[in-house]
UniProtKB/TrEMBL annotation:
Binding site for substrate: 48-50, 84, 185, 236-237
Keywords of this entry: Amino-acid biosynthesis, Isomerase, Methionine biosynthesis
Top EC category: isomerase
Gene3D superfamilies assigned: translation initiation factor eif-2b, domain 1 (1.20.120.420), Translation initiation factor eif-2b, domain 2 (3.40.50.10470)
Function in brief: Catalyzes the interconversion of methylthioribose-1-phosphate (MTR-1-P) into methylthioribulose-1-phosphate (MTRu-1-P).
Protein name: Methylthioribose-1-phosphate isomerase
Keyword Isomerase recorded: yes
Catalytic site: 226
Pathway listed: Amino-acid biosynthesis; L-methionine biosynthesis via salvage pathway; L-methionine from S-methyl-5-thio-alpha-D-ribose 1-phosphate: step 1/6
The EC number(s) this enzyme carries: 5.3.1.23
Residue stretches in coiled coil: none
Keyword Isomerase among UniProt keywords: yes
Length: 334
């Protein structure tokens, strides 16, 4: 399936991205020409989504290598690594790029590795979608959260790829998408992306999730992941844990959909996942307009950790991993 937009586009001497901060009202593209540009794009959430920021960081290393200064490129890798703490794909991609940089500082080989990371993700997204689509009946109501689509990856997405592939199979899919406060990835990005690509999507308030499950027959829930640990615990956008609890209460299958590059082999469980907390203004303001009292305490964690007992399965490119996750992740993925 071909998307109606390009999230990341390598142009040879720069990388072009769609500025996700401006969606859905404006479709603006940014040309990033330096690793510093890439760092800021990730940090400011002009681009987001675990696979996407990993791919973009790889291209940031490629841009750095064009200057011909190996030591500077190694420093730039460290800088890019510090851009955001939770999504494991960022660290996976930079580890691969660093290995190439240190083994053979050849600009062409470094660029080739970045393109390879991008192409691999594109193929994996297709496979994830196929595996997930097979789980759905011919007519299905589904649920997701945040944005785990083409805007978050180098291909057609992770969780949203399931809906795209189901549509290709002729299945009739209806998707419910919560707004996903405070950055509104559901309202601004998922609703925009699914609608643009011909998927029947209904946007709801975050607090309406329980109501929808109680009053609609939801067939399955598909969400993305920013980091999966070896026991199946996983971090995803804040609100995913709420959705998992609701899904389990109503006995609806709950899947996370992610490439194996999201699995952190060095982390045994979710207790060790670093959780990013962002600027309080994301909660106290909307488009620069204050909506909360001044001098109020604010916390803005942007990820939560869903424990493996709430998870039906992990859909990765190597298959669908079921319980016991601590055994089957090793068996299927590594």
């Amino acid at each position: 399936m071909s998307m109606e937009f390009k999230t990341i586009d390598w142009k040879g001497d720069k990388v072009r991205i769609i500025d996700q901060r401006e969606l859905p009202l404006k479709e603006i593209y940014l040309d990033l020409k330096t690793p510093e540009d890439v760092y800021y794009a990730i940090k400011s959430m002009a681009i987001r989504g675990a696979p996407a920021i990993g791919i973009l960081a790889a291209y940031g290393v490629a841009l750095s290598s064009m200057k011909g200064d190996k030591e500077k490129t190694i420093k730039d890798i460290k800088m890019l690594r510090s851009s955001r703490p939770t999504a494991y794909n960022l660290f996976y991609a930079l580890e691969r790029m660093e290995k190439v940089v240190k083994e053979n500082f050849d600009k062409e080989k470094i660029i080739e590795e970045a393109i390879k990371i991008h192409e691999e993700d594109r193929r994996i997204c297709d496979e994830l979608g196929k595996l997930g689509a097979e789980l759905l009946p011919d007519e299905a109501k589904c649920f997701t959260i945040c944005n785990a689509g083409a805007l978050a990856t180098g291909g057609i997405g992770t969780a949203l790829a399931v809906f795209y592939k189901a549509k290709e199979l002729g299945k009739r899919i209806k998707v419910f998408a919560p707004e996903t406060r405070p950055f509104l990835q559901g309202a601004r990005l998922t609703a925009w992306e699914l609608n643009k690509n011909g998927i029947d999507v209904t946007l709801i308030a975050d607090n309406a999730m329980g109501f929808i499950f109680e009053n609609e027959k939801i067939d399955a829930v598909f969400v993305g992941a920013d980091r999966i640990t070896m026991n199946g615990d996983f971090a995803n956008k804040i609100g995913t844990l709420n959705l998992a609890i609701i899904s389990n209460y109503f006995k609806v299958p709950f899947y996370t959909v992610a490439p194996t590059t999201t699995i952190d082999r060095n982390m045994k469980d979710g207790k060790s996942i670093p959780i990013e907390e962002r600027d309080e203004k994301e909660i106290t303001e909307i488009k620069g307009i204050r909506i909360a009292p001044y001098n109020i305490n604010v916390r803005n964690p942007v990820f939560d950790v869903t424990p493996n007992e709430l998870l039906t399965g992990i859909i990765c490119e190597k298959g669908i991993i079921k319980k016991p996750f601590n055994e089957n992740i090793k068996k299927i993925c590594f």
